[in-house]
Structure formats: C-alpha cells, structure tokens
C-alpha cells in the first residue's frame, strides 16, 4: 500500500521543523560528557526557571493525578490583570506554537494563503502547508519586515499575516509607528498575528496591547519559554479581541496546558526579580557577542532579542566543527541563510567559551 494514495497530499513535501540539537544527542554522537557541552542554539534562558516557579511546580506535582483546569483560570486571570485586558481575551497554548495551529484551524483552508517576511520563523509556513494554504514570503531588506510590501502582497485569499517583533532568527524589529500605519491599512479579512516571543528583552516594549483594546483583527503571541525559562513545559498564550479568542478556544484540545506548567507560569509571571536578572545578563551577553564579532570582522545583525545572527562563511561547516568542540549553535540554511549561524546568549562563562571556540575554528 502506498500511504500517499490516502494521506493529505500537502504533507508529502513538507519538511518537518528541525529543533536545536539536544545536549544528550550530541553527547551520544561525539562521545562527549553532557556536562562538557554548552547549548547556545535554542534561545533558552541560561538561568533556568524562577525559584518561585520551581517551588510552585513542585507543589503542583503533588496533584499530578488530577486533570488541570481546562480553561487555565488562574493563569489567564493573572495575565489579564497584568496587561489590563479581559480574561476572555486570552487563550493558553502548549507553547505559543500551538496557538499558531489554532489560528490555522480557525481560518485556513486549501487555496488560502498567509504572508510572512522572507526570513521569519519557519513554523508559520509549516502550519500553513499543514492546512493546504500557500505562503507568500515578502523580501525583508536589511532583515527587517517591509510592512508596506506585505500590505501590497495581500490578496482576497490572504487569511493570516505574521509579524514577528522582535523577529526570529534576525532579532530585528519594526517600530510602533510603522505598526500603527500598517494596522490602519490592513483589510478586515486578514488576521494579523504579532509574534512577541521575545518582547520582554526589548528595552522599551511597544504597547501592542492597544490593538487588542481597540478591537483590531489581531492576535498577540507570547510565551513563557524565553525570559521565564519554562521552555521544557511548553506554555504560551495569545491575546486578542474576545470574539476572535472565542473562535480559537473552539479549536483547542481539552487540557492542552498542563497543570505543572500553569502553576510555574503563574508564579514566574510575578517574579520581576528573576525577569530583570535574565534581561540584565542577556543585555550584557548580547553586547559582548556584538563587540567580539566586530573585532573578528564578522558581519552580524543588531539584535533586540536574546540571540545574535552572525555571518561566518559556511554556516553548516562551522556548526559541525563547533559541535566537535561541545558547543551547540544553530545553522541557518533552513532560513535561506547558509552563510550564517544564530547564537543564543548564555552565561558570560558560556559566551566566552563560545567565542573562543568560534575564533579557533575561523582562525581569528
């Protein structure tokens, strides 16, 4: 039996998302000790979760035999109070990626299209393909979203438009003024998704919640994976007008956000000290990387997030050679950037080891 005679045809050529290489996998492949490996590939928080989140999660584990609150009242209520929106304007996801899938379930069908920047998070395109929709990738000169060009690319079949701000993998941003002009012009049949997974790392975060308060056709995506350090628990959220969020709830599986993740997220959300400390080491590490790249004569993209995109020549070759040294970075060929790697900010000790390894490989 040929399974493709029965499977959805759009899946045949779909390339699955390739996550950053796990430490354990590299240790097995190269015969290295896990404790001798540093991972700087997946934009994770090198400090780990908030101590308050850890305490809350340990307590939640004693109730692991009980199903979680399917609507996540405590977490949604805490988010609503923090951002000044109604609890009905928030949906939780198994990571913010799951909410991208909710949006696809809600609005995409074969023949539709979505619009992204050329160098944007690959999951947008993967999800569109999953639902039989096409992806229009708009060039992003200087690696910054060209909002005017994205507007011009909209067709009657466009159902979703993604703006990642800051963008992964480039770390670039568009201004609030540009977003406001864009939102005034985007047609009503398009759902604008503003992915703000890294917004806590921005020195002066933009008030994109105003679009929600104004009832615009917008969904903001945010996550606890980055500054909160809860990537392993997969917990994120979407914020939008209540009518729009109600549609997304209809696409959600029961109990999609587990109880331990919800408990950790509530506690971590209130731990400003941990978030401030994370931002401080991120700012210091990002500055260090940029200074070192400049000293080596390596072009890089000025970043507003917890990573830096740097041009190293043959990205895949550098990636492999750094693996041999126990340093995991992210090759960028899947983003059509074969000469680049993306390096996440770690502790300063990790940052210095990463730079020393890169210098040795490049002969710098």
UniProtKB/TrEMBL annotation:
Its EC number is 2.6.1.9. It comes from the Bacteria. The keyword Cell cycle does not apply. GO terms for biological process: L-histidine biosynthetic process. InterPro entries: Aminotransferase_I/II_large, HisP_aminotrans, HistidinolP_aminotransfase, PyrdxlP-dep_Trfase, PyrdxlP-dep_Trfase_major, PyrdxlP-dep_Trfase_small. It catalyses: L-histidinol phosphate + 2-oxoglutarate = 3-(imidazol-4-yl)-2-oxopropyl phosphate + L-glutamate. The keyword Transferase applies. SUPFAM superfamilies: PLP-dependent transferases. Pathway: Amino-acid biosynthesis; L-histidine biosynthesis; L-histidine from 5-phospho-alpha-D-ribose 1-diphosphate: step 7/9. Keywords: Amino-acid biosynthesis, Aminotransferase, Histidine biosynthesis, Pyridoxal phosphate, Transferase. Signal peptide: none annotated. The modification N6-(pyridoxal phosphate)lysine is found at residue 226. Its cofactor is pyridoxal 5'-phosphate. It holds the Pfam family Aminotran_1_2. One of its GO terms (molecular function) is pyridoxal phosphate binding. Residues 36-356 form the Aminotransferase class I/classII large domain. Homodimer. Belongs to the class-II pyridoxal-phosphate-dependent aminotransferase family. Histidinol-phosphate aminotransferase subfamily. This is Histidinol-phosphate aminotransferase. The lineage of its organism: Bacteria, Pseudomonadati, Verrucomicrobiota, Verrucomicrobiia, Verrucomicrobiales. The gene is hisC.
């Amino acid at each position: 039996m040929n399974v493709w005679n029965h499977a959805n045809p759009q899946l045949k050529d779909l390339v699955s998302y390739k996550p950053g290489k796990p430490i354990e996998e590299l240790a097995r492949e190269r015969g290295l000790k896990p404790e001798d490996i540093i991972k700087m590939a997946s934009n994770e928080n090198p400090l780990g979760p908030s101590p308050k989140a850890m305490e809350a999660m340990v307590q939640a584990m004693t109730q692991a035999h009980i199903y979680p609150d399917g609507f996540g009242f405590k977490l949604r209520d805490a988010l609503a109070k923090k951002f000044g929106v109604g609890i009905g304007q928030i949906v939780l996801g198994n990571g913010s990626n799951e909410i991208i899938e909710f949006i696809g379930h809600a609005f995409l069908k074969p023949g539709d299209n979505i619009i992204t920047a050329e160098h944007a998070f690959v999951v947008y395109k993967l999800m569109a393909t999953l639902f039989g929709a096409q992806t229009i990738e708009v060039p992003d000169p200087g690696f910054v979203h060209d909002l005017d060009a994205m507007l011009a690319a909209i067709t009657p079949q466009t159902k979703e438009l993604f703006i990642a701000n800051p963008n992964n993998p480039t770390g670039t941003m568009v201004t609030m003024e540009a977003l406001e002009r864009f939102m005034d012009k985007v047609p009503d049949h398009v759902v604008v998704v503003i992915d703000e997974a890294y917004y806590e790392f921005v020195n002066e975060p933009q008030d994109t919640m105003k679009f929600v308060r104004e009832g615009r056709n917008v969904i903001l995506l945010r996550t606890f994976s980055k500054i909160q350090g809860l990537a392993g628990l997969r917990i994120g959220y979407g914020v939008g007008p209540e009518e729009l969020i109600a549609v997304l709830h209809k696409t959600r599986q029961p109990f999609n956000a587990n109880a331990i993740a919800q408990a950790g997220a509530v506690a971590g959300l209130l731990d400003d000290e941990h978030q401030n400390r994370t931002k401080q080491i991120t700012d210091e590490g990002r500055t260090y990387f940029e200074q070192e790249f400049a000293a080596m004569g390596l072009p890089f993209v000025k970043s507003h997030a917890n990573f830096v995109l740097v041009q190293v020549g043959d990205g895949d070759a550098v990636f492999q050679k750094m693996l041999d040294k126990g340093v995991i970075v992210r090759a960028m060929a899947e983003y059509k950037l074969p000469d680049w790697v993306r390096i996440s900010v770690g502790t300063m000790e990790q940052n210095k080891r990463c730079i020393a390894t890169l210098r040795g490989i490049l002969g710098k």
